[in-house]
Specification:
This protein is about 15% helix and about 30% strand.
């Protein structure tokens, strides 16, 4: 992929044209990041009162054929996109090859439905991570995508999990929904709801939709996927199974949808039906599985759901869990209690860690 720089570079702060020669933007903590071909020393001479940090060159703007004068050849980058920062104030970022978070806010305002289209992802993929400001410290990691409109879940999608649940293997995918208010960051607390006695865990593969899906053939389904992520489909079994009606009320409590840490693009994941899955409770392995044993694979699920529900960019499908949930422990089930620690992950997609606590009246916002 090759590019040529714009013929009219400029300096702008907050979108206002100040002078010709270079472009800058605000980094973390109000510092100024250079984003063209002029060094920070020149900027300091012209704007001595502004707080400057490191140079952060941006990518040239105009694409030209490989081999043309002035072209820059760059290898295709794979991506792990994320959002970091306090709840409600998350910033867009990506994980570089060294496992460091890089700030994407000079290029996009967020990682949301608009940024998930194939064209938008290609633009982000063209960015050299080393050109982005480094995020220091260990910020909170949020849900990797904002503006999730639908949180769709698939039940009993592993034969051995169906067996431990004393349920028949489904002939078609079991589709239910989780409330979008259950979404939470991958390492945020999980709150046992008021009056819950059977809260449980489920490590799952999540699918994040990148483009609109309606009656999509299975062979075309993964072309509509922006990326994959880890989901903990936390569940209240009494409410799900013993209280009548649908499963939804046992699946949608606040904090029952830890998601992330990253959205990993399909080109980096490779074969999505060859990913190891695991979950530990208080250091003891409870779940071990692999996506190859899913009854209905990722492509089939996207296609199937799109027959009944229009899928839009940012929608999330969580695809079922392998055996080892608390409900299935013998001789007696094991359910979550305050102070428990869940750690879980899916290969290539990262890991989560949640501390469990009891609900309090203060949790009513």
């Amino acid at each position: 992929m090759s590019f040529r720089r714009s013929s009219q570079p400029h300096l702008s702060i907050g979108g206002r044209l100040l002078t010709s020669g270079f472009t800058i933007g605000f980094g973390l903590s109000g510092t100024i990041c250079v984003s063209a071909g002029v060094g920070s020393a020149a900027l300091k001479r012209r704007f001595p009162t502004l707080p400057f940090s490191r140079e952060a060159p941006i990518f040239p703007r105009e694409r030209v054929p490989d081999g043309a004068p002035g072209h820059v050849t760059r290898e295709r980058q794979t991506m792990k996109l994320l959002r970091y920062g306090p709840i409600g104030a998350e910033m867009p970022g990506l994980l570089d090859a060294e496992g460091q978070i890089r700030d994407l806010s000079l290029h996009v305002s967020d990682i949301g439905p608009v940024q998930l289209s194939p064209a938008s992802l290609d633009r982000l993929r063209a960015i050299d991570p080393k050109s982005l400001p480094l995020v220091h410290g260990s910020p909170r990691i949020g849900v990797p995508v904002s503006g999730i409109g639908k949180f769709i879940a698939i039940g009993l999608n592993f034969a051995d999990h169906a067996a431990e649940s004393n349920a028949p293997i489904p002939k078609e995918p079991i589709v239910f929904t989780k409330a979008i208010t259950s979404l939470t960051g991958p390492n945020d607390e999980v709150i046992i709801p008021k009056d819950s006695v059977k809260s449980d865990w489920e490590v799952e593969l999540g699918i994040i939709i990148g483009s609109k899906c309606q009656h999509v053939p299975e062979a075309e389904a993964l072309k509509h996927v922006a990326g994959f992520c880890v989901v903990n489909d936390v569940s209240e079994r009494e409410w799900q199974i013993e209280r009548g009606g649908t499963w939804d009320k046992g699946k949608g409590a606040d904090t029952f949808g830890p998601t992330g840490p990253w959205l990993v693009t399909p080109d980096e994941v490779g074969d999505v039906q060859a990913l190891d899955m695991w979950l530990d409770l208080n250091g003891k392995r409870r779940q071990t599985g692999n996506t190859r044993t899913m009854i209905f694979g990722a492509a089939h699920l996207v296609s199937y759901v799109s027959r009944f529900i229009t899928l839009l960019p940012g929608d999330l499908i969580t695809t079922g869990t392998p055996p080892g949930v608390g409900m299935g422990v013998k001789p007696e089930p094991v359910y979550l209690k305050p102070g428990d620690v869940m750690t879980l992950g899916v290969s290539k997609l990262g890991e989560q860690r949640q501390v469990v606590r009891a609900w309090t009246p203060a949790d009513i916002a």
